[in-house]
C-alpha cells in the first residue's frame, strides 16, 4: 500500500538484487526506517526482535533468510542448520514453519549450485502469492462492505471497527482485515475506521493508525474499552479483524480482546467479520476455547508502554507500581457463534464447519 | 485503609486543626505525596487538576474547601462566590454539587461568627458518613463474597475482577467496589484481584494496584482486553465495579469498558456486581444508554500515557502517530439485564426498578 503516495510492500528485494529490505516496525509510528538484511542472522533477528511481525510477513522474511544463508554455503547441513535457527525465532508461528518447509522441499532435491537462484525465486513467489491472496480477501470483503454501505443508504460514512493490526504491515501487502478497507477506500466508499489501541503492544495505535493515515484512510484511535459504547450508539456499521488461527468450526483465535468486541457486536446487532487466508485454518481443532493453548507473554509488555517522549525519542514508561505484578495473555478465542462471516481468499463463508468445508472442499 | 501498615483516609484534617491533607493521586503509584491545602483555591485546584478524584472524595474536598474559604471571610457573598468556583471545577460531578449545597444549607442561616466552626464540623461529618456508607457496602458485599466462596468449596482463591478504581482513594475510606474486597481480605478469605488497567487514564494500574498492594491484597494487573479470556477459562469467580450514576431501573453508568466486562460475565455465567452508595441513583432516568449523556474528554488522555521513565521520573509518552487523531469517551452504560446485583449501604438488591425501589422505599 502507499506511504505518502509511494507504493510499498513490507518486505522487498533491494535494487542490488540480493539483499532484502524491511520496514523496522518497532520504530513505527514515530519513525519510518528501512532496514537492510544481508545475512540470515539479521533475518532471524528481525523476526525474533519483531522488526517484522504478522504471520505472512514472518514467513516471507524466513524464506528470504534462507536465501541470505545460502549465499555463503548451499550444502544440506547448512540449509538444515539455518532452517532450524530461523524456526526457533518464533516457535509457535505456523507460517514460519510452513515457509521454511516449502523452501526445504524445493531446495534439498536440487544440486547445490542451483539452490541459491531457486531460493530467491521461491521467496519472491511466496511474497507475490501472499499479496495475491490478500488482494483476493479484499475483493471478497469489498462486496460485503458494499452491501452494508448500500443497506445504510450510502449516507454519512461507513464506520468500521478493527482490533490490532491485520494490515499490510502484518503481511506482504494489502493485509487481511484491512484489505477490504483499502479496497473500499480506493473504490470511493467514504470509510472511517475506529482503531482499537490494542494493549499491551498497541499495534492499533502504532501500526494500524500509521498504515491507514499513510494511505489516506480516515480513522480515529480509541481505547480498547470504547468499542462497546460506540456500538450501543450506532456508531459502528461493522467490525472486522484478522485471526492467528481459525478452527475448523469457524472459531477465531486472535489478539486478546477480540472476543469482547465480538460480544458487543452481537449484543448490538453489528456484523462481526473475520478476514483470513486459508492456511490459518486448523482443520484438527473444533473447540478453540478448549483446545487452543494461549501464549502467555512476558509481563514487561504490560508493565511498560512505548511512545515518543518529550525529547522526541522513542522511550518506555512503567505504568505499574513496583510492588505489583501483571499477567500477559496474548490471544483469546472468539466462538464461531459470535462471528457473522469469514472472509477468505476463496470467498465469504459462514463461521461453521459446513461453511468452511464447502469453501475449501473438505 | 492501610498504607504499609499505617491507616489512612484519602483526606483528613491536619494536626494543626485547620489545614487539610490529601494524597496527590496524580503522583501515584510511583510517589506517595501528601499535599496540604490551606486555601479554598488550593482545594479547587486539587479537584480540577485531579489530585483528588472519585465522587465522594471530590465532595469531601469541596466541603473542606468551603471551610478554608470561610477562614478569611464568612459573609454570604464570599460563601456564594467560593461555592460557585468550587462547583465549576468539575461541572458534571453530582456529589460536588450535593456537598456544596449541604454546606450552604447549613451555613447561610447561621450568624457569620458561627459559620467557621459549623463548617468544619459538617465537613468532618460528610467524611465520616462517607466512610460509614462504604463500610456498610463492604459488609453487605462480604456476605455476597462469602456465598460465592462457599459455593466454590473454599478451594484455591476467590478470583475477583474489577475495572477502574472504586477504592478508598476514590472515596474517603473503604471505597465502594473494593470495600467488600478489603472486608473479605480482612476476614481471611484468600482473595485475588484481577485489576483492569483501565485505559485511558489507567486508574486500575495506577490506583487500584497501588491501594491493594499497600493493604496487602493479592492482585494481578491485566490489560482491559484480557478479562473475557479469563472468564472463558474459569479464572474469574465474580466481577465487581463501582458506578458513577445508576438508573432507577438498575442500569449502570461507569468507566468506559465496564459494559464489555459485563457482557463477558454474562456469556460465561460469572456474577457481575456493582457497588454503590444510594446517592449515585438517578431516580429520574430509566434508560441509561438512551438518556445519560456520555462525557467526551480531551484526546490527550488517549494519546499520551504517563509512567515512570528510565530516569525514575514521572513522564508521558505519545503513542499515536502525529497524523492521527483519537476520541475519548469516558463512560459507558451497562444495561441492568447484565448486572447480577447492586450492593448498596442498605443491602443487596436486584438490578431493577422493583429491587431498588424496595431498598430505598420509593
Structural topology:
The structure is a homodimer of 362-residue chains.
Chain A: E1 2-3, E2 6-7, E3 11-13, E4 20-23, E5 34-37, H1 40-48, H2 55-70, H3 76-87, H4 94-107, H5 112-151, E6 158-162, H6 179-186, E7 191-196, H7 203-215, E8 219-222, H8 227-232, E9 238-241, E10 245-247, E11 252-255, H9 258-267, E12 272-275, E13 281-282, H10 288-291, H11 300-303, E14 304-308, E15 314-318, E16 325-326, E17 331-334, E18 341-344, E19 347-349, H12 353-360
Parallel strand pairs in A: 6-7, 6-9, 7-8, 9-12, 10-13, 12-18
Antiparallel strand pairs in A: 1-2, 3-4, 4-5, 10-11, 11-17, 14-15, 18-19
Helix pairs in contact in A: 1-2, 2-3, 2-4, 2-5, 3-4, 4-5, 5-6
Task: Give an overview of the whole structure.
- The structure is a homodimer of 362-residue chains.
- The first copy, chain A, is globular.
- Chain A has helices spanning 40-48, 55-70, 76-87, 94-107, 112-151, 179-186, 203-215, 227-232, 258-267, 288-291, 300-303, 353-360, and strands at 2-3, 6-7, 11-13, 20-23, 34-37, 158-162, 191-196, 219-222, 238-241, 245-247, 252-255, 272-275, 281-282, 304-308, 314-318, 325-326, 331-334, 341-344, 347-349.
- With 362 residues, chain A is α/β, with parallel strands linked by helices.
- Chain A folds into two domains: 2-129, Up-down Bundle (Four Helix Bundle (Hemerythrin (Met), subunit A)); 139-359, Translation initiation factor eif-2b, domain 2 (Rossmann fold, 3-Layer(aba) Sandwich), CATH 3.40.50.
- The longest helix of chain A has 40 residues, at 112-151.
- In chain A, helix 2 packs parallel to helix 4 (94-107).
- A seven-stranded mixed β-sheet of chain A has the order 8-7-6-9-12-18-19, with helices on both faces.
- Chains A and B meet through helix 7, strand 8, helix 8, helix 9 and strand 14 of A and helix 7, strand 8, helix 8, helix 9 and strand 14 of B.
- Strand 8 of chain A pairs parallel with strand 16 of chain B, so a sheet runs across the interface.
